[in-house]
Amino acid sequence: MPPVCRDKEEHRRCVAACLVKGAYVVENDLNRRRMWGKELAPAWWENFGFRTVDVINDDVIDDNDQTVTGTIYEHETPPGGGEPRHPLSPRYVVAFRGTMTWHPKAFVDLYLDLQVLFNTLQDSQRFRLAKAAVQKLVDTIHKGTGVCDHAVGGRCVVWLVGHSLGASVALEVGRVMMTEQGYNLPTFLFNPPQVSPAPVINLLHPNEKAKRHLHAASSLLKVGLGKIMNSHEEHMEKLFERLSPWTPELYVHESDPICQGYIDYFEQRQLVQERFRGIGNSAMKLSYRDMFFSVLGKNKERPHLLPSALLWKNSRVDDDVEDHKKLSKCKMLQEQLHQYKKLAFNAHSLEHWWKPDNELSLTKTQYMYSYPSA
Fold first, then answer.
1. Reported confidence tier of residue 186, pLDDT bands at 50, 70, 90
2. Which residues lie across from 364 on neighbouring strands?
3. 177/235 same-domain check
4. Mean pLDDT, to the nearest integer, of 38-65?
5. Distance linking the first and last C-alpha atoms of the chain
6. Got the DSSP string for 87-138?
7. What share of the chain is helix, strand, coil (3-state, %, to 5)?
8. pLDDT by residue (tens digit) across 15-24?
9. What InterPro entries does UniProt report for this protein, alphabetically (predicted)?
């Protein structure tokens, strides 16, 4: 298997998804007591020239009751001096798994899902342990090599990857590393959750013109509130300036209600910018919930407010659910809900992302932050 090559987007995506899957299977192996050569997890990273150097554990009850939530991989040269690591490939990859609903301790993941919902994931132990693990890794890398060398084609030796809940963890860690220390760590987020009314609105099949007018009006209202709450707007502008060099890659499915909010946020903000540039640039930094908390004296930024991002949108679903995208009006509501659930579950699956490009319907859009004119 050739080394991971950052300039080959398809290869990079497939390998990153497999490494996240490896984090899931590590916990699965431990839970089912597969050991002594019977583990299934190594196949997900060994074929790409990686080895595990550490795992990130989350204490569920005490030190003797832990669950693996992340895996740290190191790329190694094969014995005998095989093909070396590509200069733009990562030396280390930190992968975070998502929610395991079938797990005996699934309640822990589900509780963290609620923290994502209420934007309190940064207060969780899982985030603190993840940040500490990445910080330790960054601190132990030889200072002569450096963590990131943006003068050499954006080379960076540490990557962050995650799926679902794990994508939220990776997003929070990447944001903090960028804003607090200036480390621009390449970050790959598969089906990242974003709390938004977008799934409900999309179910109503609104007229696109009406939808554009709605978002334009909402943006205008945000800008008006931002003028009143000037200190909050200035805080967000400074945050965006610090974050703007960081461009996480988001892999989302248009039929996945869990991450549709990201599609809505980026596509609608682009449309507003094209119509009203000044309003669009100001509104993209603001959210109603952030402004509400600002009134209470709390700066709690929504993680989806990203100045820059590379959005990969997949529109293909498996054949067995393809026919359910257009549900017959004569079907009973219960059957419609069942089929919608099946479609949503399929769209949220990690397995889409290790498939080759010719098995997906991918569109790629890069969003950049434009600094306000002086």
1. very high
2. 312
3. no
4. 84
5. 51
6. TTS-SEEEEE----TTSTTHHHHHHHHHHHHTT-GGGSHHHHHHHHHHHHHH
7. 45, 15, 40
8. 999 999 999 9
9. AB_hydrolase_fold (IPR029058)
Check pLDDT > 60 for residue 322.
no
Q: What is the tally of structural domains in the chain?
A: 2
The single residue listed with the structure tokens 């798994």 is 97
My answer on whether 155 and 246 are in the same domain is no
Does residue 233 share a domain with residue 341?
yes
Residue 223 domain boundaries:
198-367
Q: What is the DSSP letter of 366?
A: E
- Do residues 140 and 239 share a domain? no
Q: Is 105 exposed, middle or buried (0-12, 13-18, 19+ CB in 10 A)?
A: middle
Q: Which residues pair with 72 in a beta bridge?
A: 54, 94
Is 137 inside any structural domain?
A: yes
Q: What is the largest CA-CA distance in the chain?
A: 67
Domain end residue (candidates: 162, 190, 218): 190
What digits encode the pLDDT tens for the residues 138-173? 988 855 456 665 444 446 789 999 999 999 999 999
Point out the domain boundary residue: 139, 170, 190.
190
Q: How far apart are CA 359 and CA 353, in angstroms?
A: 10
CA neighbor of 276 nearest in space, from 190, 328, 216, 319: 216
What's the mean pLDDT in 178-205?
A: 85
